[in-house]
Hints:
By secondary structure, the protein is mainly beta.
Amino acid sequence: MGTLECPLCYEILEVKPPDQFHTAFSTEKPLTNSYHGNLVKRFYKCPNPECRKAVAVFWYAPLEYFNRL
């Protein structure tokens, strides 16, 4: 699980990975050669009732993890 801020109102969002493989996340699409496998794009709704913006989060498996094995 991780936390990030809504880019519009700065409310804290809690995000959960879609599976055990995709452990890193970003609101910006990571560089193509910086992750292993595929990207998973999920949308999370801001919990602030005055905002409720859908925030896109990219989940991926960072290459650094595989270099340690």
